[in-house]
């Protein structure tokens, strides 16, 4: 397999990882919360889409669209009722509560859906490829990459061109003074998590259509997402995309050498960046 | 007519009590100054009124409504805006965005708009896209005041706006006050600079160790009385 | 007028703690004698309890005392176990010696990983520790000599020939397999005691006071000369040492290893976190209570598979939200009792009547 094909595979895989990471990056940027259940929420959304497809016979794309507002509401509630209670000067509560949440989601899914592997089929598109000159790109992987770019552009627009985005940035800077502007931090955080769940649903769609999934694969997605955010640099969404692509390409090359080395190659790339550029490639500001 | 009043207002930081029963009134159209040494309770008083600190519900009344226990966002909605001590601009926002965020909780029509603020402080128009924190201290103070004005407040609380600024800059900032008053806002000014307070206020309160030790219009207060109220100890 | 004010002095001993140390001494004596009069199954249960206690106290030392939340301590459990297996299988060393070497190897691994990990803070430190665990797992799964991805077993008879096993067998008239259990149990008990004594002495030392300062406010601590980085590294290395020893010991008893089992997040991190949270983070007594609660819950619910884990997760969340000091914390805050007194109590000196100062204004 030519190395160009490997790079292309890696880049489109990177788009998927960037989708995993974008929600994580958004939430951390605004409220300094890292949700250890993030990966499991992606898997939850994938099962939701699958459920809508099987129960209502919906086309998967349509099912994903229906799942989006459901997941937004779920994220909003999750933040408002549970995660907002953990925010404060102590770092332990958010970490431990979201870790517990990860365990709960995984095992609830295991009980509800068993440990069997699932797949969301998009029949003719799954194996369709596009020929661009000398190279062939799968249609779904290309869509994944394009979606990740669209998501990141949209999030940046939200952050820098809207009143809500201003409120996000202000709350992230100084919660108390934001209150003096009439911003209710609790509500802002709930909206932020809701938006993160929209991105999670999109990521779940591409995850579920690309490969088999089961209730236990959440933590690995969290790790890829986290690595992408760190490589890219905290506070930069484009950096997150770059980070995802770096991981994806590293994994693609690792797999080409030896399939058993795919995941390890990604981790090694992450550790290498961490060693030489501890604040990431495009850090935004002093953290 | 009394717009804002505190009744036996108390406030504590954990075990440490900062205010021991403050009675203060602000009438519509007035400018009131609160003076006192460091640690006297001036900022605590401002933060209590603004809702950053929660107090007994009836200890603060605005337009005859008890607001003492309300959180800051709800106080802002009702028309009380604060220029916080230390300015506290948002580093991630530009000058113009800092101004715009002032309307987030209370976006009503009124004399103050982005253009009106730029007319009040023309230098800001030139620096509108700079990051808020790249400006000089005096310019940041202008942004902070403008940000508070964007909500077209009925009461403007100014906490130590002259802190750390050169006298000529302080003069420029206070030069904007007549226009602020003319727009209909009633103002409470916290000042360590007694001279400045005497020049700008209709009435003065002096705080010492969490209590009001002196109150009255500038004309009725002698220097000795203010000195004694400010510092407390007798001259011996 | 009295010109010399009485001096302030620092005390740590309390009445409760003195009484408790007496009871503790008795309990230890009983525990040492236990194999003489309890069943083999009970000895195995006690082994499980003491090894989990070591893991819990180590994690508690990291997270509760040093503020380093790791969800990757399974790296050291698995690494310690694999190093032990390597020395036994490849170098034909005695398992007990291998356990000791595993502990040292764990420290070396910790020294290496701290180079990466300590570039991260807070939640990112947590996930980073998980990444490290995954990397170690994936690397060891490549080691064909130790079974690769499917794992391997200790050669038969190796544990029978361990130091002390035949002596114990003769002394108490036990079959080799039972004698092995007893030796492992005593090692677990010894390790648990060493861990507790270590944590206790650490907290009572100047370093322990510094740790508390660093955890509360790192900048303020640094301004009075406390080196946060060195302290945290020391605690991280110590936790790695104890965890690796425990991992190696656990797998001597199990005698069979695989990457997925030895590096299981559920077995070596989720359960441990649950134990510490339920019992009470940041106290020495907490994990001890937590281990007992966990053991009881496990006995009652282990048959229920994912429901069991689900319930544990829910309990953990609820405790963290509504009783973050855990069971021991609830008890101690009402009664002000500390069995392992690590608080420094100020007695003596004059009390000033007038307190001035506070946030200015």
Helix content of chain C: over 70%
Report the structural category of chain C.
Answer: mainly alpha
How many strands in all of chain B? 10
Name of the level-1 CATH class of one domain in chain C: Mainly Alpha
- Shape-level CATH architecture of one domain in chain C: Orthogonal Bundle
Q: Largest interface, by Cβ-Cβ below 8 angstroms: which chains and how many residues each?
A: A-C, 43 and 43 residues
Treating each run of at least 4 consecutive H or I residues as one helix, how many helices of chain C?
A: 15
Structural class of chain B: alpha/beta
CATH homologous superfamily descriptor of chain B: P-loop containing nucleotide triphosphate hydrolases
User: How large is the radius of gyration of chain C?
Assistant: 22 Å
Largest sheet of chain B: 6 strands, mixed
Short summary:
The complex is a heterotrimer of chains A (287), B (236) and C (361). Chain A is mainly alpha-helical and 287 residues long.
Which features characterize this protein?
heterotrimer, B: 236 residues, alpha/beta, 10 helices, C: two-stranded antiparallel sheet, 4 strands, 70% helix, 3% strand, disordered C terminus
How would you characterize this protein structure?
The complex is a heterotrimer of chains A (287), B (236) and C (361). Chain A is built from 12 helices and 2 strands; from the N terminus they run αααααββααααααα. Chain A has helices at residues 3-31, 38-56, 60-82, 92-113, 123-126, 139-161, 163-173, 175-180, 185-210, 218-232, 237-257, 262-276; strands at 129-132, 135-138. In chain A, β1 and β2 (135-138) form a beta hairpin. Chain A starts with a helix and ends in an 11-residue tail after the last helix. The relative contact order of chain B is 0.18. Chain B has 236 residues and is an alpha/beta fold. In chain B, α3 (95-101) runs parallel beside α6 (137-149). Chain B is built from 10 helices and 10 strands. Chain C has a domain at 13-263: ABC transporter involved in vitamin B12 uptake, BtuC (Orthogonal Bundle). Chain C contains 15 helices and 4 strands. Chains in contact: A-B, A-C, B-C. The interface between A and C is large, with 43 and 43 residues.
